[in-house]
Amino acid sequence: MTTPWSPTDFSAKVIEYYHAHGRKHLPWQGTQDPYKIWLSEIMLQQTQVTTVIPYFERFIESFPTVTDLAQATDDQVMQHWSGLGYYSRARNLHKAAQIIETEFSGVFPQDPETIETLPGIGRSTAGAIASFAFGQPTAILDGNVKRVLARSYAIEGWPGNGKVLKALWQRAETNTPQQETAAYNQAMMDLGAIVCTRSKPDCPDCPLSKHCLAYNSNSIEQYPGKKPKKARPSKSVYWLINIRQEKVLLHKRPPSGIWGGLWALPEVQQKEMSPDQIQQLDPFVHKFSHYDLQVQPLLLSSNADKALVEKNSHPSIMEPAQADWFSLNQLNEIGLPTPVSKLLVKLLEDS
DNA sequence: AACTCGTGGGG
DNA sequence: TCCCCAAGAGT
């Protein structure tokens, strides 16, 4: 019977791993600038490191400080997030930058409770910023830490479950050391990303294997518990492609809902145009994590009734979407959903 | 508590 | 190809 790690021995092993093998040269490391650390933490939410790196570099180049970000337009910010997904992150980031400017005189708050009041920053992200930027002894609990803790202490159940999450936070708080917290937090994520991976973990080389309850009971695969799977629904829509004088008509999507704040092709559920006014392009399926979107792109001929298009493009009369015409160059200055961007690029290549 | 919110990597 | 899920947060 294996005895579990004591919190002090656990954190000592983890910190030792940081000095020997931890990641220290990612683009947002080697600085204590809270703005850069904050930006990286937001981009890294549910997004892999290799995906984030080029977005982070471009973003910092265009908006080097929180003041630059606060003063940027919505479209500028969304353009820099285009393709990264979870666009509420970008809208909340922009809002938070303006709050920091107006309510905190441009100075990033240091205590975790205040940091967590900013939009888009939850408990774990607040803990990460407070420890990395300000050296505070705050705990984090991202996917990596959840996996390492669930295995080390054989914490059963899916982390999305409230009780399981509470148990994981309890263990995270207990094990987070008061000293060298930043090194500990970074190393926990490094262990999860490099050694304690979700498939084929490298237990023989893990500094925590000696007292890892899952490893020593040969039940690594049971931890963390898996998310219950559900059927993915499917939606069908038409996208209207209306090109006049080298410009394409786009609509700005409302702030809430899918692709909020991005410019997309006008979308309708049914087509009410006569067949001679439209050309059906190749249909395709865009797969989200929670549903499939079946898209039938419709290329409108130049004599199609524009008024009809406009009418169909506004599902709600109460809240008409913002619409505008964009030239090819202007498409680089706004946020576009990935499938819209791909479709337009393909269309322009063919013509 | 359960659901929503993107996209891409890797098995 | 299909499926899981990533440095989670908001509602």
From TrEMBL:
Alphabetized InterPro entries for the sequence: A/G_AdeGlyc_MutY (IPR005760), DNA_glycosylase (IPR011257), Endonuclease-III-like_CS2 (IPR004036), Endonuclease3_FeS-loop_motif (IPR003651), HhH-GPD_domain (IPR003265), HhH_base_excis_C (IPR023170), HhH_motif (IPR000445), MIG/MutY (IPR044298)
Keywords linked to the UniProt accession: 4Fe-4S, DNA damage, DNA repair, Glycosidase, Hydrolase, Iron, Iron-sulfur, Metal-binding
Gene Ontology molecular function, alphabetical: purine-specific mismatch base pair DNA N-glycosylase activity
Keyword 4Fe-4S attached: yes
Signal peptide feature range: none
Enzyme Commission number, as recorded: 3.2.2.31
UniProt name for this protein: Adenine DNA glycosylase
Organism annotation: Kangiella aquimarina
Gene name of the record: mutY
